Amino acid sequence: MKKEGIHWDQISAYIEGRMTPAEAHAFELEMQGDAFLSDAVDGLMQQNDASRKQALQALKVKIAGKSAPRNTVFYRAAAVILLMLGTALVFWLRFQNADSPSQVAMDNAQVQELLEDSVSAQLSPDPAETTVSKFVEANIPTPANSEYESVTQVQDAVPEDTPLQSDGSIANIADAGFESAAETRSMKAKSEVLDAPKSVFDNAMPASTDQEDMSLLYNPDVVEELLSFASSFTEPELESKESYQSKVQRKKTVAENKDRQNDATLPPPSRSIIVKLIRDGRYELADQEIQRMQIYYPNTPVVSVLHAALLIRLNKRQDAIARMESLKKTSYRKDAERLILRIQQ
Amino acid sequence: MQKDRANDADSVLLKRYYAEGNEKDFTELFSRYTPLVYGVCVKYLKDSDIAQDAVMQIFTRLLAVLRKEQPDHFKAWLYTLSKNHCLSELRKQRHTPFDAQLHEPFMETDDELRLEDEERLMEGLAAATQALPEGQRICIELFFMESKSYQEIVDHSGYTYNEVKSFIQNGKRNLRNLLEKGGYR
Description:
The complex is a heterodimer. Chain A is mainly α.
């Protein structure tokens, strides 16, 4: 090591007595003109070779270690990743302990906890008000509540004699808020092409309504592919796909229904929770959350894919294909075609 | 791209540290001087572990100070900072003032002993050397006239290594005084 006046080779050779007398004399002359060097040599010579080398090696390691943590970008990123993994682990463990897939009945308290945990930062100032149960009671059609009161309240512009669609879903509520009454009726007429997800739990559970043999068509691999694909969308895509107009309308709709539905106090729907609900066979709740997601992120690919996955699970393969067809109009055309082929297999 | 700092000059590392603030540049620079800083710390603090701690404290302190000031002569600046740190530590340990030592030169440099007129100086040097105390005279003659190393002088004179070093330091100072007094400088 020789850098601008640092002659460690010379220093160690001198200290260890490996210099010729002439070299030693030259080095001593240099020391006389260099107080730093002279003092250092005095100190280093106070120790034997072993302790000196051990101390210098220890210092080398300490100094290298001291500078390493200063690379804060890497460590911050690592901390964020660890935090995210930790959060994911907590959710996974909770879902591991959830009810068996056959239990489709909603566990409001549990879901409330999940939703609140996942987006606690976005909760209302009064979290006690934020309950999925209230939201569900107010918004989600049930066999006993198929009239779906909220639809009529949202659709103020719709004449009273306008027949409500039998599946009065939240997606349609959103649509109703966005469009005029005439347009809303027109959209509902088009609902057969599945522009937006609609509830498949109108009057009965799927097991009793499915006309096809589930054992023949149930394809868990395809569902998993769809769920993985849905999970692959980055978060910004959820927002960026939403037009400014629809975002304004969504906020307006949410605000209009705030007092009655309390949905403004609910956290936004969580894609990961929907995926988990589908995997766990909690189809009704998954359906509700998908429809709620349609309000928050209208006509985004992720909603289509999640809905298609749910439809396959509910043995509505053709509906699922139709749902994926809408994805062909987006930049995910190739993915849509590939997945449609898989569904058709 | 990984920088090959090991081949960079001290001044290059220092400038780059000021410009980019990458502590790896400073670490490379400090690593080069670690043996010297450690040696100074051992000299004054007399204990390897305490000296190692002092080196690390100096390292940390330097990082903070270098954000505020940019010394022109890093090596000299590092020496002053290291020595003052050690003396400060000693002051804490012993509760005795070391201010006097802080300002007392430990050794003259060649700059201080610059020979402006060598020919004229040489005339007075022989006489002045003879006027030195015996130990200083012997060591000065052996070191400067016969180019002997400290160890050779030890072997030749029977003085210890530290005595030889001390005689030479003091002898140089006395020589300068004698030469100045005789009008040779």
